[in-house]
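Each record in this resource describes a single protein on a pair of labelled lines. With that in mind, the following record should read easily:

===
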Amino acid sequence: MAALVSHSFAAFTSLPKVPPSLSATTSFLRPASHGVALQSPPVLPSDRSPTDPSESSLPPGHCTQIVQRHRHGRTSLPSALSASREPTETSEKETEKGTGEAILSLAVPALASLAIDPLMTIADTAFVGRASDSADALAGMGSSAALLTFAFYIFNFLTTATTPLVASRRAAGEENGALTVGGQALGLAIALGLVLCAFLSVFSDLLLRFMGTGITGPQAGAYAASFLSVRALAAPAVLFCSAATGVLRGFLDTKTPIVVLGGANAVNLLLDILLIPGAGMGPRGAAIATTTAEWVAAFWFGGVLAGKLPSAEGDLGQNRKGHAGPRGSDADPDRASLSSLDSSDPPLVVVPSFSIPPWAEVKALVVASSSVFLRTLVLQAAISSAAALAARSHGFGPEGPAASVAAHQIALQLWLLCSFVCDALAAASQALVADALGKCDDRRVKKITQTVLGYSLALGSVLATGLAVGTFGSDALSIERFFTADPSTQTALKPLLTLLIIAQPLNAVVFAADGVLQGAAEFPYQAKSMLLSVLVAGTVFVGLESPWLGVGEGDSNTLVHVWDALLVLQLMRGLTSMKKIVDSRGPIRLAT
């Protein structure tokens, strides 16, 4: 053992520096909860068999060691050294099965939690649309909701950047580092939420005019202003929930958000019933219902992360559990790097941090967040521009622009709902890829990527089938009739639903690929590729609206062309993401 430690320590000190987002603890002897934990020796490129196709050397700048946790006073050798170099057919099947189960164990709970959030807006849209005989209420709510979608989702880096940063530190044994990143993300979320709330409140009239309320009519504009004035108050809560979800995912907990958001959705639904058809408050009632529900969720998340309320998983929260037995490495390798704790250990506490830390401590979060922010800003600008262009369409029937905006609002909410469903696989791949890279298991990274892309294609096909039944099936299942009784809105919605059906398999693959790249911390590349994708989609839209193609400005086809461009946007996102995934110099190297 002494010889092994001596050899390993010498090898460890010669390792190249790794990026902060993937760096493990840099000391070979690390304090543990019971004495000193002796970590396993790293596996260097020279230790790998050059003829072994299952273990290709990692590219420069990516993980350079395998870190395994010491359990019960015994040191286990790295799997790369103790396992057979030539996996048997049985072990291959077991690995594939384990990967699929790991993905589903995270994706299925994430599916529920991600679908719950847009269901709030879907419920608001359905209640408002069915309670009004005209398109004005839904058009006003649609303009305001599109603005809020842009305003809130440009900050989704609070989830997508926090998750891999927390997960990689946790997987490498840096539990305190993971908690620190989580606290920084929560503090940043609250600060940004307060600024966003003030901005939306002060500049509401200007922002709504940009969204086309001056064209949809005074009544629709009044509904939009009323809706926005209330929903802006939820900005700190929405951003806090995003950061909290990122922290929980980083600890491989996708079940707690289900409970929290499920409870919030129940509050929203109850208040919708009381305030919209009951009190006749229309869009303002919908805004009050959703804002209240989002604050309930924020306080609930805060209680769990502060250790005051129980979590569904038990890794965070008041009911923190030990990790021996079924939660240990023998039962689930993706949770193997969590600390070995007694059931009596105090809960982990993640609270917002408002102090200004040294640059070295926040560099990884800032770099990742800024890249994701730029990427999301470009994407949401494209979606919000689509809503503004819909308002400028002459539309179908006498209600014109109002019907176009109402139809766009319904289609967009269905798009977002399906996108969040597909994003469940992205959430799973994001956490698992970051976890595998933190353990330097490049072979498992490829297996996760292959499996999640296959699952995404199947999920997209299921969603397309469901939408097709609602679009072309019987009147009892009609999506148009479910959301609105206005004939003009129904007519404008029909061609958009066809495009939604076509887009679902593509969307599913795009979101899964996004999750893989986010798990690999490829945030700058994603920002650049998003900018390119939006430029191509915008060029296609301009071409479709060009008079050389026989389409006049303000023609009723403008709304359809907006959605044609959105499909092109998704196609470009898919192509650029797959290029990086198969790149032999990238972190995934799926084609090698």
